[in-house]
Design brief:
heterotrimer, A alpha/beta (139), B alpha/beta (675), C alpha/beta (413), B: 675 residues, alpha/beta, seven-stranded mixed β-sheet, six-stranded mixed β-sheet, globular, C: 413 residues, eight-stranded mixed β-sheet, three-stranded antiparallel β-sheet, 14 helices
């Protein structure tokens, strides 16, 4: 458990959160390197399968960031994402995997700072939760 | 419109009931048969996909006759005429029949009758030679009968299991479920297996991961501990056994330190296992190929029988020494007399038997000399009639088997697909498969059940019994083989096999879960537990046998430093004839592999998935490596289902006294590709 | 006419005798066939004895009588059979006799366009539970001291299980006690709180009946009203309005049964709710590690309808050939199905390693139901919660709008 670096998969949407990450990069705002970002056109594209696969393959945490409700480029993709993430969090909790490992955030294209903070916070939270228990079981 | 045809799964020895859903002459699905006592509406992956192979595009639909190096489709007339001419022109000693563990009882019965009445030979054997020949040698003298003592349904009852040489979770899932239930009620499970199989991982409270083949030493050690601690069942030994003093004398003379060294199992573990088993109220021993498929198989089984007799764990529901027959008719085909030394009903080669069958079969004479076994027939016989048997993948040292088959004067193979063996035949006869014919089978716990016809066989394929009867008719024995249906054959079986006397199609049609033999009369419910009052030995007592440890025939040496053991995976069945033609199953495990211990892999620079070459004194096989610590250091495991990565190219054809090959252990070395 | 209730009996004496509580269902089925309202009837027919049955497609009105009588030990997968083997009723009109779970499953299949709801007439029957056949037989021998083949009828009345034998005698035992001993109904039946199939066209049962040979019928749809009216007009069924007492009695019995079920459910789920995360993980893992990848749960689940399933070995998602399979296997299935689980229990019936899949799925479904205020299987026009959003959500920022973090610390709040 000690010295364990959490590995986090992030799903960002093309029109908001990914641009925010871009902005953070361009503005040289630091955030921890533990996050692997996957760009989707919209968080509405997020099948619960992707998140489950991330956990099954050993991710310690999954971060989903999309546009604020009402701002989605595809109108309501982010709203679907919210429902799906809630379902998955409940599923994880029932199975005995800490639901805090899965996080949803709204980040608009201009919120580069906010994104960096969210990531920092999330990495620390996941670090405190330890390694993903599914890793051992799936070995 | 939609028909639900109740039948039993065609794969393993459990005997799980299911419904085949038939729509417009085609099977479209499998539905659970929840009332069936064995399956309870549940099926394993093979069972769920059981009918798919019937619709494989390469089902044999017409007879094939060899012209040069090709097999060409021909008519039944031509093919049968060819067969009959060859059969006529042969002496009984040169003729051999390899019968099947998958044909119905009726078909197996008719096949051995054909051999004995039409050809006049006792050269009849079947694949049980490869799995339980040593059981007969081991349980025969001790308990009098090599059958499963308990009923599958009763395996919930014991409070201690000794699971030796069998990976029940993968090979007998319906029985594993019962063991699981027993465990949930507090039963203790001891697993004896050189591999950390799934069964060991999930169920074992004590896993004796012994050096392969050393079971006799281990069990002798356990029995010694039992004597030392006074845990033997004195009352049982007194009342129901003979020969205890000799065994005791021998056991007191063994050195437990030596046992520890030989088996590589700590004395502590041996003690724990012995105490657990002896201290149980009802102990059950389950064993299969890991025990039997050795040159010392009969000795190991004797040791297991001794252990059960010593502790009195026999004659109670769920208890006893239970050989697990893995084929759907592994028990039945033997009951039907497909043995070189037994007539139907295990009647030995005595004048009494000959008189009986001359009478029942209405013939002047029948063969009286003991016949040849499978490997002997493959070596010596000039002409072979092979039904539902694929020695090209299942026999040891397949390179030699190929040579032998190619040298034969005449080989006729009767099967549902063009197996690797059929491809070498002179004539191939297409038979109807499970689901396309009615008949009975006898599953591992002596359970006789009906399988029903759901659909018609493809093309010109016909049921095995009809093919055999036609051959008999063409050879002038038509009136001895006048059967209009499998029911007729079964009626004759009832007359010949006393254990089946009380079983009838009427009773079977009304029952779910069949009837377990012995069933002496029509109002007898069948027998779930054997040996309750007496054993099947002539004097009714259980006889202890003193057996000493002998090492397996081929141990590793400098040239071949690794041990190879073979076995199964849940998704496939034996030579893969049926399962590899089932998409879902073959997608799960498309081809063979060899499991290597991580330390060995590291030493040789092998990574998971690498292609490696395994070499033994018999041959070489290219396969994929799988690195896992389920095997011990120095041990390699290969599933034998895959013809193109045939484990049996490497295995040792050395035979036990009962002519069982030593499949489970031989010496190999690993070569990297290109080295 | 919806919501209207009637006390009914079949006009045919033979039907009254053979059928359960007045043979009304049998009479309705015969009417539907003979009037050519439907092409066929899908009913459960016993095969050999009361403990085994298959869902039979009947086109001959005379055969309907063979399916008369309720069987309490038989649970064929009616909804899935309808989809798999009868093309989802795309091309024929079928009347289906269904318990609440079967009707709910059919409603869910309708939402997924797997069955043609227009072609279906659902004759619902009340249900208080089904017994697994082999356990039932053992229970009859060991707890009632009777030969299972002598039983002609089972009744669950409140908390009691009453057996009627061929000679007319009856025996009664406390069902709760039997279930505590390990006998009793299927696990999902114990926790099921939908006893009256109001999602069907007609709901028939014996609660509220004032005589032995009488069925209480509640009309639950326009179509159901039409059918009942026509059946009465054509002389198959005789109806009379129920007294107020009868209606109240029915309500009382329903409430009692639902409370019994909810109590069971609370106790069952409480066992897991009071575990902390680690314990929960170990608990489920202890079961899931026995999985042998038979795909039985997926094959029988009425909600699972993908033509090409993600879990198959050739999809590359779950590593092939390994048992127990990676935890992706059960997680993916549950993630897909949980919001619509109708608690039919077929998955658990099918599992060769007795993994309590139905418990897992219906437990999750219970949370999701309260999260999304959605109960599956009630109305074909409702959409499953993960396939729709509401207008109100556009203006709510809260990321955990639906999620309720009640169980993180492991202690009930």
């Amino acid at each position: 458990m000690n010295g364990h670096e959490p590995r986090i998969i992030a799903f960002f949407c093309n029109f908001c959160s990914y641009l925010a990450a871009d902005m953070a990069g361009v503005s040289r705002i630091q955030y921890p390197p533990n996050v692997r970002i996957i760009r989707l056109m919209c968080t509405g594209r997020l099948s619960p399968l992707y998140i489950l696969e991330a956990f099954a393959r050993g991710a310690d945490g999954v971060l989903v960031a999309g546009c604020h409700p009402g701002d989605c480029h595809f109108i309501k993709g982010n709203l679907y994402a919210r429902r799906r993430v809630s379902m998955l969090k409940k599923l994880l909790e029932m199975m005995g995997i800490d639901p805090r490992r899965l996080r949803l955030e709204w980040v608009s294209a201009s919120e580069g700072n906010k994104l960096a903070n969210v990531i920092k916070e999330f990495v620390e939270e996941v670090r405190s939760l330890g390694a993903n228990p599914l890793k051992e079981v799936n070995a | 419109m939609i028909d639900y045809v109740p039948t039993i799964c065609p794969y393993c020895g459990c005997g799980c009931g299911m419904y085949l859903v038939v729509k417009e002459g085609r099977i479209v699905g499998v539905e659970p048969w929840k009332e069936h006592p064995v399956s309870e509406g549940k099926l394993c992956p093979k069972g769920r996909n059981s009918y798919e192979f019937l619709y494989s595009h390469d089902r044999l639909k017409k007879p094939l006759v060899r012209r040069g190096d090709r097999l060409v489709e021909g008519s039944w007339e031509d093919a049968l005429r060819r067969v009959v001419n060859e059969f006529r022109d042969t002496s009984p000693e040169d003729f051999g029949i390899l019968a099947s563990g998958k044909t119905t009882n009726e078909e197996s019965y008719v096949l051995q009758k054909f051999g004995r009445v039409v050809i006049g030979t006792n050269n009849i054997d079947y694949c049980a030679r490869f799995c339980h020949a040593t059981t007969v040698g081991g349980l025969g003298p001790t308990l009098g009968s090599g059958v499963m003592a308990s009923s599958v349904l009763d395996y919930e009852l014991p409070d201690c299991f000794l699971i030796a040489g069998v990976n029940v979770q993968e090979t007998f899932p319906a029985i594993a479920r019962r063991i699981k239930r027993a465990k949930e009620r507090g039963a203790k499970i001891i697993v004896i297996d050189p591999r950390k199989t799934l069964t060991a991982k999930l169920y074992a409270d004590i896993h004796l991961q012994l050096f392969p083949g050393t079971d006799v030493a281990l069990i002798n050690g356990m029995m010694r501990v039992i004597l030392d601690e006074g845990l033997e069942n004195g009352e049982f030994i007194e009342k129901r056994t003979k020969g205890f003093e000799e065994l005791k004398e021998y056991l007191l003379s063994i050195d437990l330190k030596e046992v520890e060294e030989t088996t590589n199992v700590s004395l502590d573990e041996i003690k724990k296992a012995a105490e657990t088993y002896a201290g149980a109220k009802t102990g059950s021993i389950l064993y299969d190929e890991g025990i039997t498929e050795y040159t010392t198989g009969a000795e190991k089984i004797t040791a297991l029988a001794d252990l059960a007799l010593l502790t009195g764990h026999v004659g109670k529901p769920g208890a006893g020494v239970n050989p697990m027959r893995g084929q759907i008719n592994g028990e039945g085909t033997g009951d039907m007399g497909c043995f070189p030394v037994f007539y139907p009903g295990f009647k030995p080669l005595t004048e009494q038997t000959f008189e009986f069958f001359r009478d029942v079969w209405n013939v002047e004479s029948i063969p009286e000399k003991a016949g040849k076994t499978v490997m002997e027939m493959l070596e010596d016989c000039k002409k072979l009639y092979i039904v539902g048997f694929n020695p090209m993948v299942s026999a040891p040292h397949v390179t030699r088997v190929k040579e032998l088959l190619e040298q034969k004067e005449f080989v006729v193979v009767q099967d549902i697909f063009l197996t690797e063996t059929a491809a070498l035949a002179d004539v191939v006869l297409p038979s109807a498969a499970w689901g396309e014919k009615m008949g009975t089978h006898t599953w591992t716990d002596r359970r006789v059940q009906l399988v029903r016809k759901a659909v018609d066989p493809p093309g010109e394929a016909i049921p095995d019994w009809q093919i055999i009867c036609r051959l008999a008719e063409m050879m002038g024995y038509g009136d001895h083989f006048e059967y209009k249906s499998p029911r007729d054959i079964f009626e004759e079986i009832r007359r010949c096999v006393p254990q089946y006397r009380g079983i009838s199609y009427e009773r079977l049609e009304k029952s779910s879960g069949g009837i377990q033999w012995p069933c002496p009369s029509e109002d007898h419910p069948g027998t779930s537990t054997m040996f309750v009052e007496r054993f099947n030995t002539p004097d009714g007592f259980g006889h202890f046998g003193v057996v000493q440890y002998r090492p397996p025939a081929e141990l590793p040496d400098n040239e071949y430093p690794f041990m190879l053991t073979t076995g199964r995976v849940i998704f496939h069945y034996h030579t893969g004839t049926m399962t590899r033609r089932t998409e879902r199953l073959s997608n799960e495990v498309p081809t063979g592999f060899a499991v290597i211990h991580p330390e060995n892999a590291e030493e040789l620079g092998i990574m998971d998935g690498d292609e490696i070459l395994l070499v033994s004194r018999r041959g070489r096989v290219k396969t994929f490596a799988r690195v896992s610590n389920e095997v011990a250091r120095g041990l390699i495991f290969m599933p034998f289902h895959f013809a193109e990565r045939a484990a049996n190219i490497l295995t040792n054809p050395v035979l036990a006294p009962t002519k069982m090959p030593e499949f489970k252990l031989c010496a190999v070395r690993i070569e990297r590709e290109g080295s | 006419m919806e919501g209207r209730m009637y006390l009914a009996i079949a006009s045919d004496v033979e039907m009254r005798r053979r059928g359960e509580c007045g043979g009304v269902v049998t009479a309705l089925l015969k009417f539907l066939l003979e009037s050519k309202t439907v092409n066929a009837v899908l009913a459960v027919k016993k095969r050999g004895n009361r403990y085994d049955g298959v869902s039979q497609l009947i086109t001959d009105p005379e055969e309907v009588l063979e399916c008369a009588g309720s069987l309490h030990c038989v649970s064929p997968n009616i909804a899935k059979n309808l989809k798999n083997y009868l093309d989802g009723a795309q091309n024929m009109k079928i009347a289906v006799v269904c318990k609440p779970c079967d009707a709910r499953a059919i409603v869910e299949l309708t939402k997924r366009e797997q069955v043609n709801f227009e072609n279906l007439i659902l004759i619902g029957v009340n249900c208080t539970g089904i017994f697994p056949p082999n356990i039932a037989k053992r229970m009859l021998v060991e707890e009632y001291g009777v030969d299972p083949s002598e039983v002609v009828r089972e009744d669950i009345d409140g908390k009691n299980l009453i057996i009627t034998l061929r000679d007319g005698s009856r025996r009664m035992r406390d069902l709760e006690e039997l279930e505590r001993k390990g006998y009793g109904r299927r696990a999902n039946c114990k926790r099921c709180d939908v006893k009256i199939p109001r999602m069907a066209d007609l709901a028939c049962g014996k609660w509220g009946a004032e005589k032995e040979d009488q069925t209480f019928v509640e009309v639950c749809s326009e179509r159901g009203a039409e059918i009942l009216e026509n059946a009465v007009k054509s002389g198959y069924v005789i109806v009379e309005p129920p007294s107020r007492e009868a209606i109240e009695e029915r309500k009382r019995k329903e409430t009692e049964a639902i409370e019994f079920a909810r109590k069971e459910r609370r106790e069952e789920f409480a066992e897991i709710e009071k575990m902390n995360l680690e314990e929960r993980f170990k608990y489920w893992n202890g079961y899931l590690e026995r999985c042998v990848k038979c795909f039985g749960c997926r094959d029988v689940c009425p909600i699972c309808y993908c033509r090409e399933c993600y879990l198959e070995a050739d999809r590359g998602l779950v590593k092939p050939g390994r048992i127990p399979p990676e935890r992706m296997f059960p997680l993916v299935r549950i993630a897909h199905v949980a919001d619509s689980c109708v608690n039919c229990g077929q998955c658990e019936d099918a599992c060769p390693m007795e993994i309590p899949i139905s418990k897992l799925c219906s437990m999750l479904n219970q949370y999701l139901s309260s999260m999304f205020r959605y109960i599956p299987g009630m109305d074909p026009r409702e959409k499953p919660p993960l396939t729709m959003v509401t207008d109100g959500e556009f203006s709510v920022e809260d990321i955990d709008l639906f999620f309720n973090l009640k169980f993180v610390s492991g202690k009930p709040s």
